Every structure is written in structure tokens, then in C-alpha cells.
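Moderator note: this is an archived Q&A kept for reference. The question asked for a predicted structure of one protein chain; the sequence and the answer are reproduced below.
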Amino acid sequence: MPTVQIQPDRQTVNQGSEAELTCIVTGSPPPDIKWSKVNDEFGVGVRVEGNVLRIISAVVSDRGMYVCTAENAGGTAQAAAIVEVERREPPTVQIYPQVKQTIVAGASALFQCHLTGGIPTPTVRWARTDGRPLSLNTETLNGGVLRFNQVQGDEEGSYTCTAENDAGRVTAVAMLEIQSLPVISIRPGPSPYTLQVGQRMRLECSARGDPSPSVTWQKLEVNFPTTVSSQSTAPNVAVYEVPSASKSDSGTYQCSATNAAGVSEERIQIVVEDVLPGFKPVVDTTIPDAPEAATIFVPIGGNYEFSCREQGPDASSIIYDFRRSDNRPLPRGYRIENGVLYLTSVDQAASGEYACVGSDRISGRILFTIYATFEVIAPPRITLDPARQIVRPGDLVRIRCTATGPQPITINWSKEGGYMPRTVIMNGGEMMFRGIETSDAGRYICQAVNNAGTARAVAEVVVNEEPLLTAIQQDIVRFVGQTAELRCEASGIDPNAVSWSRLRGSLPSSAVIRGNLLRLASLRPEDSGQYQCEARGPTGFLSSVITLNVLTGRQSLDIRIIPSRPNVRIGDDIDLTCEVSGQAPASVTWKRMNTGLPLNAQPRENVLRLINVQANYGGIYQCVVTTSTGVFEENFPLAIQGVISSERVDFELNQRSVMTRSVAFGLSVIMECHVNLTPPVSYTWSKQGGELPVNSLVENNVLNIPEVHTEDAGLFVCTASNAERSLDQATLLVVTGVIPRFSENSYLSLPTLPRAYLAFDLEISFKPETGDGLILYNSQRESQEDGDFVSFGLSGGYAEFRFDVGSGPAVIKSRQPLALNKWHTVKLSRDRKKGSMIVDDGEQIMGSSVGRFLGLDLVRPMYLGGVPDFDRIHQEAGFKTGYSGCISRLVIRNSVTLDLMRDSKTKIGIRPCETCIGNPCQNNGVCQEAYTEVGHKCICPAGFSGGLCENTGEACYPGVCGTGRCVNKPGGFECFCPFGTFGQRCERDIMIQEPAFGDGSYIAYQTPRALKRFSVDLNFKPESLEDGLLMYCSQKYRGEGDFASLAIRNKRLEFRFNTGSGTATLQSEPLLQDEWVEVRANRTDRRGSMTINGGQMQNTESPGSNRGLNLITPLYIGGVDNTRVEISPEVGVEDGFKGCVKEIKIMDQQVRMAESLVDSANVGQCGGATIAFCSTNPCLNNGQCSEDPGSPHGFSCSCQEGYSGHKCEMEPGVCTIIRPCKNGASCVGSRNEYSCNCPLGFAGQHCEHNVDIRESASFSGDSWVEFDKLMLPQEDGQAQKLTFEFSTIKPNGLLFWYGQEPTVSGRGQDHISVAIKDGIIEFTFDVGTGPAMVRSPSRVDDGERHTLTVERAGRQGILELDGSVREYGQSPGILHMLNAEGNIYVGGVPDLALMTDNVYTTGFQGCIHRLAIGEEQSINFMDRALSGVNVNTCPSSSGWKHTTEGRNSASSGGWSSGSSSSWSSSSSSSWSSGRSHGRNSGRSDGWSSAGSQDQGSSRVFNSYEKNHYTRPAYSHRTYKRTEQTSRKVYN
């Protein structure tokens, strides 16, 4: 029997070099020798000469396992050897940002010689092309960067970059061109320059610069430059001359000098003396302070009297005038008698602040102004969408109940005459049937309750197995010229099969038929009649009739509904009277919206009487008035107020009316609902002001939260209902153990401080027990000697903030020691080398690090309260012991508040800080530990708000302000409505052409670049001359640093600016109220100017030497966002401007007010005038606009054929016409084609089939599944590991993605991806320094079942395919931490182009048989997924067969075996890697484990082991790249 040995048994050669293997064989007779390569053919460079195998000019594909087989009469033996080929590529480079740069003198620039290729990593060096040495202000940095600092001129020229490695050398040339901005000189001077009428005026402007500039003169006419005729007397000189000056020549003249480096401007003001402008003084009338008035609550329909007669002097000498503070007209039906304002039958529009102005009868002088505020309390108003629908069994059916009105509002659902079906899922006001059944048909009652009463509405659901054709609206009334849409609901019938006809006549010529929709445009009176929709069903024809009445004109009627009593309780009687005033006789009918009138309702002409009112009588009652010219409607919300029943419990003032449960953070809690109701009983759980926790489980009367978190605290309400009534049972959940308490030896770790390289902002709240200890620490390395760091703590009772960016620490220390056992908030900021600290809103303390480095490199976790080992922190950190006390809050970048207990990865020695001892909450509020400045918040009972529940009024809750922002204030909350909306809840649209500002109003625009120059032009009309801010932009949000402002102060306009060394001020003459004023304010360096109404320019200069204006905040007009911005005290005003603004220019650029803004709040239309909404033609796609005051938008659009939507924005197509997709699927298509994107759990052509997806799933290229990102370890240093078992025949597809949010572009972002590209697995990850890629050694698009494992730890990546040799990769640079904000996606992503930056164009196509993420070894897709699209089940057979047809959305599920060429993994023999956990790869010939795993040894096997060979284990192969040091940024 022969023996075989290969020498060497393992070798690594460079690409392009030669490798040689020698097969040493013994045996008798001499055996025959045969060479082969495992799983591959020989490459073109492989030569076999007897027992020697040579690889000539090796390439990467030559790597692998080579086998020598010896055979004689005694048997067969084999040995194997491994050849590794390390890639060698010559360098390739690219010059960034471009090959040629042009800069101005004094500026800085850099070139980067960016390596785009080269293995091993090439070295890069820079030199001047002409051989001269680099100048002293030119430096080379790591990463191939050549930096020029404040160039002088001799740096101009070409520079050569040389990149070189073992495989070759390459050069690239960059060119630097230096130019200088023009410098202007104007004669005569200085400005302003005065001359007399008739004198000669000669203005000379000269400029110098490189290249030589051109010079022109312009005159600023109303701040707009107009070119004037000038002569050139010499190069770079322009002269403007007027032989005899007149007063029309007065004004501001601007000289502009332009060259390739840019434009310079200088101005001179010319004053031609003749008539000087004057100003009339304004009389200052003093109005005495008005007494404070509390808010008065009035029920809807009630009466209100506002008397100010008793508050003033003798009534005979006073005239009383009543008005509304917001300038709206007084409510309808008001009257004023003897100093009293009477309001009757008030509605919600009457709510607000009213003013009584008392003035002297003779002089007209205002004596006093008294304010009063009242609010109309209204019950909820309910909207059902839809109110009636016809569906088929198995459909996904949704009904949304929306309630508006004073909050809080509780919404409950019940079924009329029965109990809620099991298929129903309720989430707040939305009810969903998941696969509706015939027995679920019926009427469903939505009940909304608030403090003012109860409203109910009924939604009808018809479940019909037989086809049905039903008119949606049987009677339609329209006016001449309007458009009517007649629609029949088709159930079980193809909508396109519906035909239309007109009874007793033909269809009008304007009729357009779109399946079950008939559209009649430009209606005429003769179009009135009956129209029939008809379709053929299985049992015959189905039809329905719609009556259309076309009226010939509109009549303006005044319709009012007057109740006989303001408040209605159960058992009361009430009359509703519909008063109609108009020209033509009218008939009145009554109805109740969304349901019928109560059984005992008695409608008699214009009066509707309700006897013995019950709880279900609430709703919107409608008076329908029909005249000869049209049909008109008026609505009245009837609220039924509850009465105290025996089932309610009276509580003392100091008791709570709800059960309270306290649960420690991270533990589970079970809440049960126990009521005494007659079965059957249905239960609904909700959370006041929010949604149930995502991990909560609801089962009948039991709510289970397996793991309680901080945000779960609040009031949970169980609503129990039977056929007779509903009861609410509330439980207040209090979460404890939220705030950590530290001792000297305790700490917790958090992820590395993100995005802190150049700047960061931190805000930390804490209560110290001792005067020494480290509170926060984050570093680059675990070392005492080197590395960047940031630290904060207490030293001797003083707050101390340190950071080091590489050349020495900055040390910033508080002026005073901090009191122990008191809460403190410290704000830490760093911008490059500069840092600041503010303790308890005190003064800002500044400091700076030494040296030239600017960037802060942080890699290690961020620690709070201490560190694992004080011997391993930087020796300059300043602390040797841990902190003792509580930490309640850590805010990053002014916006992200960390959940300290949830976000922390390690907690050592942490105890709970009991911040609620003594219950600081007032008015029966409940204290809840929270991440606030004092470690707690108060859960307030109904009717109270504020941090301690000290204020009367409700607090903000989600959605209360619609598209606006809610802000808590004393007495309740206020909605900040965005531009274009208004109303108490931002519920209405408004067209704004000239913005009007009042209390809390503002518009914000992008921050201007104003370092050297800043200008703003605007027209404004003050409605009040009280102090108010007109424009503001600053360096800091807290009111510190540089700023520029325009403000009315002491009845004058002031322009102020501060460049860092003092404030400059310009002030106008007194302003006139309600008159337009045009202002231009300009600043260049330290010089400022202001011009009012085109008059004389005022000039000033700021003190000190600082010239640059550094601005960070948005530029605000009319006021500022007081919740974010503090106005600098140097401005001298605190309140916003009251008045109108138009025609804004910023930096001489006209601002488009609505399109350019970045933020806004509560902006109105100037004068309250109604703007024609249709003037801007808001309707798209040639839709016709008509004014519609009854619409929330103020207008309505009549759309062209097939278009729909509020603005006709939805284009016609199959999706919008027939709505083919079921079960909540989204429809994607065009005019004639469509496809359905099925949500997880559904499949089929229309997503009509339920599919049960468990551990395996089929993907079709447009599929994806979303998982929570927390399934992957987030701690720096922990490995992120994924395992896939999959099969596919497609060569391309994205298998896994973990990166940013779906709405964020993936360009340059951190991410992890696994994809198949050209049949090869590509594992890519980027931690901020460029992508690293690891590729599989073989293809996977063979239909076989493959096992893939990828792992990332820091900069290292590993890929292992089918248990074979591991492939390694490493990211460049020194960054380790992956900063990804999005969730995990498997099989694809929602937006491939955006999220992957077009790197991948299709998702995975095939089956994932098993998926493991992190610690979870086998994931159930349905249980763990957050969402998914177009995912199906894999075939049940173990041998997965496939076709090349891809996904068949109409099939019963999965992939089918429709191809003649197919593969099967069901063979009898297997391939095993020699490990006990090896998996079958589906090959008929393979290697079986039969021995130990000796690394790299040759093996000899007996002939009786034919077709079963032991595979030698591979040793690890590493591609090593030169580690780059962290790149620093220099001054």
C-alpha cells in the first residue's frame, strides 16, 4: 500500500510569484501519481511535471487545497496541501477635493491623495513638482493629506503625490492657485459726505487685487442696487460725476469690485442739503395695569356676561368698548348694555380672551383695559371612517373613530346587542377585524367621553358572501356648474364590470364612467334625475339607483340651532329649535349624523324634541333646510352629561380614585380588571395619553407587561362592556428604580459618546453626597499615558470639566463649590479646542486645550459614576475615586435624553435613588421617578398640570395639536401651529401672504453666513409700539455670544449687533403705529448701518477689535422659540413683535416666506383678512379650485377624470380605482398594472391568503423583514454575529442590512451589509473610516443549501461559508464603534436606492431556512419581526427545488418546481467539516470526519475509505493592512 506526503504542506505566496509542491511517494510496485484541486479546476498557470506541481505567476483564484493521489495494486493513498495567494495590486490614487484649487490669500486649503487601490497598503508622500521645499506653513498629515495654512502667495504651484508599494508606483499632480479679493478705496470721504444743491459731485472708486478687478458704481434705490453711468479714468478705477447735484442725487452709492476671487463692496452716503427729513413726536399714552382674571368655563350653548362697569370710575364719563384680544369679531348674537357684554348660546368659537376698554367720553383718552378669558366646554365630536362598509369574509376591515374636543377623551368600542368578536383588535380609536367572519356583521358603537359629556356614533359593517351592489349615497344635491361623483360599492363583483344608465333618458354628454364610479362635470339643471348602476352576478343582475338633484343657484341663509337648555343630563327633556332667516320659504327636516334619530324623538317642523334623554342620544344633530334654490345644513353637537350613580365611589380630597401599582424597573407586572357585570363581557385596555407598551400582552381582563420600562409609567384604563353598559377601571402604574445611585466603587457603562470628534454638548443633572468623585469619563484608550479623553466630576466640592484632544488637557472649574444633597444641572460644551461649563444656569466658564490638535477621538465606553479601574484612566483626568450620589439625567447634543437604566450595558454596585420620598406633587398628583433635572415628574389628576401639578388645566398629550407642537403653560397647554394652519388645535388651514405676529409667534429661516457681512431688509407694520423683537440671530441658544437683532424699544426701532467685544446700537426716530416701515440693516466687520424708509443712513461701529459675526441659531422673524432660545440681555427686549411683516431679504436675497422657513409658530394673516385660497391654484393635475369655507382647508378641488385626493394629487390607476389589495397591503402600480406589497403574514396576488411563517421564509427580491436593532449587541467590544442557512439561484441580492433610518441616505454612513454579488458573498461594514469587505471563496447561487456565518468585532470582520476556511477583513483607521440608528433588515430594505446609496439594486431571492442574530440561534420570523413585506413560506420538502421564474404572488405560497433543471439537497452522502456541528451541504461526494483536527498536517487514507475522506482543518488566514493612526485636524 503506498504512502504519500506533500512538501510543503502549507505555503503562502504573493500574487504574481511562483509556488511549488512536491509529492513524495513510496510503495511497491511504484505507484501512479495524480494531482487534483479540491472543488475546482487547475488555473492557467498550473503545471504538473511528474510528482511536482508548479503554479506560475500565481493569481488569487489559484489558492486552495491541492491533492496528490498515489495508486498501485496495494491500494490508494492521498495527501493534501494548502496554497494561499496574497493579493498584490499596484496603487491607484485620486486627488480630493479636486485636482486644481483656487483660494484667496489668507485662506487655508488641503489636498488629499486618496488611495483607491493597492495591496499591500501603499506609502504616500508629497513634494513640490519643481523640487523646491515645502513652505513653513505647509504640512503633510496622515491619510495622504497636504495642508496649507493661511497662504501668503508663494505656495502657489503644482504638487506631486507619489504612492508606492511592492506591486508598483503611481503619481498624481495637484495645482494650487492663489488669488486675492479686491481692496476698495473711495474718494471723497468719509461717509456720509455732504454737499450743497448745485455743487459738483465726483465719486472715485479704485480697487486692487489679483487678478486685476473690474470696478462699477451703483446707487441703492430702496436697497436695490441700480447701475449708474461711470467712466474709467485708469485701470481698476471708476468715476461717477454729476456736474450740478440736486437733492434727488442724495442716497447711498455702492462701489463693487469683481475678480475671480470674489466681489468686494464699499458704500458711501451722499447728502445733498436742501430739505432735511423730520419726524412728528408721538404722544405716549399710559394705560394702567389691568387686574388679573381667571379663566371662566362656560358649557356649550350657555350664556356669559362680562361686566367692567364696577371696575372703573363714574360710568357717566366713560365709554365702554369690548373687543377680542386676537382681533376677531365678537360672537354672533352679542349685545352691549351699560358696560356689560352679553353672549348667548355660545359655541366653541367664542372661547378666548376679551378686553373691555374704558375711555374718557370727552377726550377719548383710554383710562383702563380689563381682560377676561373664558372657555367653552364642549363634549367630544365623533367622526367615523367609514360609517358603513360592505365587505366579504376574510377581508381585513378597519374602522377609525376620531374624537375631537377638550381633552382628555376616552374612546371605547362595543357591539350593539352582542359582544365583541375575537377577531377584533382595538388600538385606541381604531378597531380592526383581522379576517372578518359572517358572524361579525352588525352595528358597532364608538363612545367618546370627556369632562363635558359623552358622544356616541354607530358604524355598520355588512359581511356579505353573495355579490352586492349598493349606492354609497342615494340622494345627491349639487348646484349648476359643480361636479357630481356617483359611486356604487361593489362587493364580490369586479368594479370594472359595473355599467351605468339613466332612468327615462340618456347619460349627459359630460358623463365619465370609471367602473363603479360615474362622474358628471359642469352640471346643468336638466342633468337632474335617477341614475342606475348595474352588474351581472352569479344569480342574475344586481342594481342600485342614485337620485341627483341639480339646483340653479345658491341662497345665503342664516341657520341657528338653539337648545332649550344649556346642559343635558340623562332623563332630561330637550327641544332643539332650528331658526332659519332668508328670502325664500324653507322646509326643515332633522337627522342625526352616522345613525338614525332616537326612537322617541319627535320632529315637528323646525323643532326636534327629545324626551327622557338616554346616554346613547349623544351625537351630531343636523338641521336640513331645503329651499327652492338649494339644500343647507347646520350641525349641533349634543352632549349627554353623566350623573353620579351608585357605582361611583366618592373620595375625600386627599384620596385618589384609582388603584396604584408600584413596580421596579425591569420586572414584570400583571394588571387585572374585576367588574361586576353580567356575562358576556368584553374588555379593552388603553393608556391615557399614549399607547400600550409594545411588549404588553392583553388577554381578556388581564394586561401583562413582561419587562417594565420608565416610559411605561402612567394611567392604564380597562373598559369592561356587556350588552347593557360599560364600566372603566383605572390603574396607575408607578415605576421605581429608575434613577441610579452611586457609591465610590460603583459605575455603569454606556455607548461611546457619539459624534464628538469636533464638538459635543452634554447636560447632566445630579445630587452629590460627597465633594469628590468622577461623574463622567470617556476615553480613547485604557491608558494612563496617552490617548484623548473627556472627564467631569467634583474635586473638593467644585465642578471640574476636563478634555484632551491630544496635546494637553483643558481644565475648567466652577467658581463656587456645589451644595451637597441638592440637585444641580451642569451644561458642558466643547467646540474643537474651546470648552465651556455652566453650573445651575449661572455664568459661562470658558477654557481651552493647548497645542494645535482639534479632534477628540473616543473609542471606549462612556462611564458614569466611576470606572472599572482608576489605574487605567488617563493620568490627567483629574480623579482617583468614584462618585457618591444620584444621577438623574444625561442629555446629549441638546436633544437626546439617555435612558440610563435601559441603555447601560454594565451596572456595578448601582442602587436605586428614591427621588419621590415625601411626594412633592401637589393636588393629589403621583410622583414618578424620571429622567428630569430633579429626578422625578408628577402624574397629575384630571384638571391639573405643571411640574408639580400646581396649575389648573390639562397638560399636553400626543396628537392634541395635530400637525403643531404642544407646550405646557400655567392653566393648561398651548398649541404652536405651523405656518399655514390655525385654530385651537391647529386643525384649520389659512392662506398667508403677509404674516401677522402676536404673542408666541415667529418664523425661522436658515442661519445666514455672516462672518464678514450681514444684512437684512424688511417691511413691517407695528400694530403696537410696545417693546418687541422683530429679528434675531445669535451664536448661542442660551443668549450668550455674538448676535444681531432688530427690535422696537421705547417706541423706536433699534438695530444691534455684537461681534464678541461689545454691542453696537443704531436707533430710529419714534415710529407710528399701523404704518408700514421699510428698514435696511447692514453690518460689515465692525461697521453697521441702518436706513429707514429710504432716508438718511445711520452709521455706527462696534467697540473692541473683534470683527467676525459668528451665528449658529436660525434667523428668527417676529419673535423666537422661547422653548429653545434665550434672547441675549444685550438686546433689551424679551417679547415678540406685534404686527405685520412683508418683503423680507436676507443677505440681499429675497426670501420666499412659506417655502424657505425651517420652523414657525402661530403666524396669522395680516389684518385677519380672508385670502382667496384659490388665488394660488392649489389644485394639481388641472383640477378646478372652488372656495369652500366649510372645508378644513378653505377650498375644495374638482379633479380631472381618474384623479383624486384633496388636491387631486393622486394620479389615476388600477390601485386608486379598484383598490385590489387586501389585509392592509399597499398597492403599487400604474394606469393599467399593479402589484400588492403584502404585510407580514399574508401572501397571494391580492394578499388574500394567510401564511404562517416561522423559522424559514421565502424572499422574492422586493421583500424584507425588519427586526429590532437591539437584537445585535450594541456595546463596543462585543462581537456582532449572524448566521444564515439559505439557498438561491440568483447571483445578486441583499441578504442583510443594518444602518441608518429608512429615510436617511446611506451615503458615507456606518453600516453592516451581507449581499450576494455575482454569485459571491460580500460581507461589508463601515465604522466611519471607510468600508471593509470580506468575500466568500466560492459561489452560492447554485440552488444548494449553504450555511453562512459573519462576525464583526471592532475593526475586524470574519466570514465563514459552509464550515470552510475563514475569510478575514479589517476596516481602515482606528475607529471601532458602529453608529447605526436604524433597525435590522433581512432579505432587503424598504428603499434600496436611498438606504444603500444605490450599491444594491435588488433584494435577496430565495429561501432563508434558518436565521440567527446575536444570541438568538433560531429566530421565528412572525414572533420577532417588527414588520415585513412580500415574505412567503419556503417549500416544506427538505430538498429545496426552484424555478427561475422568481416569486409567483398568486401561488399558494413559496417556490415551485417548475424548471427542468433543478437541484436537490436530499442525497444520501454528505460533506462535513470534521466538526460535530457540521451541516449537510447537499453534495453527493464529500469528506467525512474520521480523525483529529491537526492544523495543516498532510493526511494519508486507506483505500477502503473510498468516497469518504477526512478533511484537514484549515488554519486561519489573515489579510493584514497597515494600521493608520487617527487623523488629526489642525488649526
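Archived answer notes: The first strand starts at residue 3 and ends at 7.
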